[in-house]
Design a protein that fits this description.
about 230 residues, six-stranded mixed β-sheet, Rossmann fold, four-stranded antiparallel β-sheet
Amino acid sequence: MTDWVVDARSVTKVYTMGDVEVHALRGLSTTIAKGEVISIMGPSGSGKSTLMNILGCLDRPTGGEYYLDGESVAELTDDQLADIRNRKVGFVFQSFNLLPRATALANVELPLRYARNGKNRRKRARAALEAVGLGDRMTHRPNELSGGQQQRVAIARALVNDPAIVMADEPTGNLDTLSGDEIMELLLNLNKDRGTTLIIVTHDPEIAQQTQRVVYIRDGVVEETS
């Protein structure tokens, strides 16, 4: 049996806006194997952002089942959802989402402050920054770093808890072409060297072509996988 790290079964998500129900996901099912690199694509309003929020444990489905690294997620409380998110998921966002007044090292340490296994925070944060090539920038604040370097800090922060999956939402969207290429190379090398499972939400076909598989979402369901 394949060792799925993501196993979503007939997932629905309904948002209530006044008297109107918006069906963002309509019985979506998908699986992702450990160590796989996939991209999620779809037009605006297709449900890909909702899917990312559910796969990343930022939200829970209205119906269906979702198992992350073997743990059932669909009916967790808010506190339980936050716990599994901190243990199992690393996030990389288009806008970096770094604390502006904190050093690179302090930004990377942040997830460990809330973790059960938060021992040796400083040592682990240093190792994560060294892994992304920023061993000489640990005491720099975000405004002292280039966009590419800030995204490397964000990647180090995503990796520091050794998560089951890293979710990257348009990770090169705010970068120039050269920096974007370097970030994609870094992410793919982390997958190759560490076996990190990567889920990349993108609208860029050139980014999608670098992944092992593309999942296309339309109208809240998986339209096709290639």
